Amino acid sequence: MARQERAIRTRRAILEAASVLFNEVGYEATTIGALLERIDLTRGGLYFHFTTKEQLARAVLDEAVTLEGVRPQAFKLQEWVDIALLLAHRVPREPLLRASIRLSVDPLSRALFGTRWPDWVAVGESLLVEAQEKGELLPHVDPAETARLLVGAWTGVQLVTEVLPGRTLSEEISSLFALILPNVASSGVLARLDTSPYRAERLLKEARSQAD
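Structure tokens predicted for TetR/AcrR family transcriptional regulator (212 residues):
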């Protein structure tokens, strides 16, 4: 059991180190040699887990869709909002999540591996369909279209926020919802949704304290 846990930790450390490299220099310029300089591991130790850069990139993307911190809420729209707020809180703090975005927007890696944007769209659409069935959405709202547009808008906001100082990603995504939700949520639900940029931090603390 101890050996298995050590292997899991080592694999995670490799992925995080690779993610830092992907973020710093991009997919094409990242090399196995550069990765070995960053981690306390032999080439054989690395190859036990990953034998190619391509495997590393795919593994990073496999970790991209995460619902950590999301908890059942009275409104499905709140869960939809929470996913976006949690991701906005975590991406600046977690190199692996940030690398999954970097790989998705990089033309070379996107051509090789695709993206996880369709998966995020599917997650959002599923919640919005449930919200629609519960009467939380305005009559004109199309769950598939709305889910797709949020993924595109969220990604664009994240990329711009990386290079423009002054506002955190959490603040920007909170502002994005202030624009979107009046056109999505029914009036009775809209007033009861929490889009605070500080909500995600509270949700994560609660989830992690319960896990401990």
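The mean pLDDT is 95.
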